[in-house]
Amino acid sequence: MQSLIPLLTIILSSHREWFKTKGNSGVFADLSKENLEEGNFQNSVLVEANFQGSNLNKSNFKNSDLRGANFHDACLAKVQFQNCNLEESDLMWANLKGAILDNASLKNAYLHGADLRETNITKDQIKFAYTNEDTLLPNCISNKEKT
Fold it and tell me: In DSSP terms, which residues pair with 55 in a beta bridge?
C-alpha cells in the first residue's frame, strides 16, 4: 500500500474546505486504515475526519481542531496532541500510549478501552470524557477517581 504522507498537504486543505463549506466543496478526509506514521497534521482542521484503524504513531497534531474525529482502534502512540480540540472524538480502543496531551480538550470524547498509559492526561481532562473499565489510565489516575 502506498503512503499518503506525500499528499497530506492536499488532503488537509481539501478537508478544511469541506468543513468550511459544509460539504459543498472540498473532500471529506477518509484516512481510515492508512499508514500515516510520523505525519505532520499541525494546525489542521480535521473536524469529523475518519482515521479509524490508521497507524498515526509519532504524528504531530499540535494546535489542530479534531472535534468529532474518528480515531477508533487507531495507533496513536507518542502522538503530539498539544492544544488540540478532541471534543466528541471517538478514541475507543485507540493506543495512545505515550501521547502528549498538554492543553487538549477531551470533553465528551469516547475513551472506552483506550490505552492512555504513559500519557500526561490529567483528571480534569477526562472528567467529562467517557471511559469504562477497559480504559487504561496512567498509574496516577484510576477510573474510580475520574468521577
Answer: 35, 75
Residues 59-74 have pLDDT tens digits of 999 999 999 999 999 9
Distance (Å) of CA 13 to CA 16, 17, 27, 76: 5, 6, 9, 22
What tens digit of pLDDT does each residue of 39-63 get? 999 999 999 999 999 999 999 999 9
Distances (CA, A) of 21 to 49, 52, 84, 125: 15, 24, 22, 31
What single letter denotes the amino acid at residue 25? S
Residue 146, phi then psi, degrees to nearest 5: -55, -40
What's the average model confidence in pLDDT over 86-103? 98
Q: Are 53 and 24 in contact (CB under 8 A)?
A: no
Q: Number of structural domains, the chain?
A: 1
pTM comes to 0.93
Nine cell digits for residue 11: 488532503
- Domain around 42: 1-147
CATH number at residue 115: 2.160.20.80
Alpha-carbon gap, residue 34 to 106, rounded angstroms: 24
Q: What is the largest CA-CA distance in the chain?
A: 46
